[in-house]
Amino acid sequence: MCRVPEQLRESVKRRLAAAAEEIFELLEKTIAEYEEESERQRRTLLDQLLLQRQREKRGQGQELRQELRERQVKTRDREDSAKTRTRTGAKTRTESEARTGTETGGKTGARTKTEGRRDRQERDKTVASSRPGDKASL
């Protein structure tokens, strides 16, 4: 009689060992699946984070490009107005030099009195000839 319980004990041990082995295999498989899922989710979150940062950078890049364009426009406007002021100042200086040269009778790169009169006379003739019904145009 003692032998039966011993055989039963050995049979139960084998079945328990096999069940334990099966449990550990399933546990390892489940842990591996969880690790894979966790890694997948981590990658997904990182991808989303990277995409968000890229969008922010693009947005910042667009903002920076817009700001750069605005600065370039302002710079061009300033340069244009400075050029206009320079041209206006040069014209004013040229006209005042012409007047000074005409008044003194000298020729300082400007027209003489005679040249100025000829220009005015030609201009007057042109204006008079372009008026309809004027005697000069008949």
What does it look like?
The chain is an all-alpha fold and 138 residues long. The chain has one domain. Helix content is 87%, strand content 0%. It has 2 helices and no strands. The chain is rod-shaped and about 150 Å long.
Average pLDDT rating:
79
Number of domains: 1
SSE order, one letter for each helix or strand: HH
Count of distinct strands: 0
Low-confidence spans: pLDDT under 50, at least 5 residues?
none
Secondary-structure content class: mainly alpha
> Radius of gyration, rounded?
50 Å
Summed up, the helix count is: 2
As a percent range, the share of helical residues equals over 70%
Biased composition (Basic and acidic residues): 53-83, 112-138
Region (Disordered): 53-138
Outline:
By secondary structure, the protein is mainly alpha-helical. Helices cover 87% and strands 0% of the residues. It has one domain (6-117).
